[in-house]
Design goal:
The protein is mainly alpha-helical and 217 residues long. It has one domain. It has seven helices and six strands, in the order H-H-E-E-H-H-E-E-H-E-H-H-E. It is globular and about 50 Å long.
Length: 217
């Protein structure tokens, strides 16, 4: 899952006026993958290209205990929540941010083949919806579409910035689905990932500065 990981960020911003700013929530939604790609660069976590790994992509994510185990994701979530407590002095905001971080593992559980773990070792888990594009693709678009609509409905401000954000998300997802598959892992893959995470996050910072929750005092 790619842009679907930002659905919980939009949902959190829509549901609670005490949620962190949208840009912060966008960091939370993909924090686990920011960490994963950083760790692949230094060789701590590992992936390789295996043609046909799933119907939708060729990533063999064969060693990622520190980011894509449930325990590892929980540690990232707790660390993010702790930073928010120190920064915002708001426990509710911190819990919301940490929950968005943890949602990453749960969403990945839907689409990954069995390469996720509970604590870094077998059993491996994953429902494998990436092998069923006609299910995985509408699911991802439906999640982001529903949560985007809720965000617009429950916040007020100019509609232009969020529509630009949505357009960028859809463009990046189209590239993710239909661009040619790489033949082997290179450092270009995590760098492209950082760009794909960073651009929407920067736009989300802008969007969050233009809108406020309707229940905010």
């Amino acid at each position: 899952m790619f842009i679907g990981h930002w659905a919980p960020a939009l949902l959190a911003a829509a549901v609670s006026p005490r949620a962190p700013k949208l840009g912060t929530l966008f960091v939370a939604g993909q924090l686990v993958d920011w960490g994963f790609f950083a760790l692949t660069i230094v060789g701590i976590e590992k992936m390789r290209i295996q043609p046909g790994a799933t119907a939708m992509n060729s990533m063999d994510l064969y060693h990622m205990p520190y980011t894509h185990s449930l325990l590892g994701s929980a540690v990232w979530a707790l660390a993010f929540a702790a930073i928010l407590v120190l920064w915002r002095r708001d426990l509710a905001a911190a819990l919301i941010g940490g929950t968005v971080v943890l949602s990453h593992w749960l969403l990945d559980l839907l689409v990954h083949r069995p390469d996720l773990t509970l604590a870094g070792s077998p059993p491996t888990l994953g429902l494998g919806l990436w092998n069923y594009p006609m299910v995985a693709m509408p699911l991802e678009l439906g999640l982001i579409g529903l949560c985007f609509w809720l965000y617009l409905r429950n916040t007020k401000g100019p509609v232009g910035p969020p529509l630009i954000l949505l357009g960028v998300l859809l463009a990046l997802q189209t590239f993710n689905w239909f661009a040619p598959e790489p033949e082997e892992w290179t450092i270009a893959m995590p760098l492209l990932g950082f760009f794909g995470f960073g651009l929407p996050t920067l736009i989300a910072v802008w969007v969050g500065s233009t809108r406020r929750h309707k229940r905010a005092v």
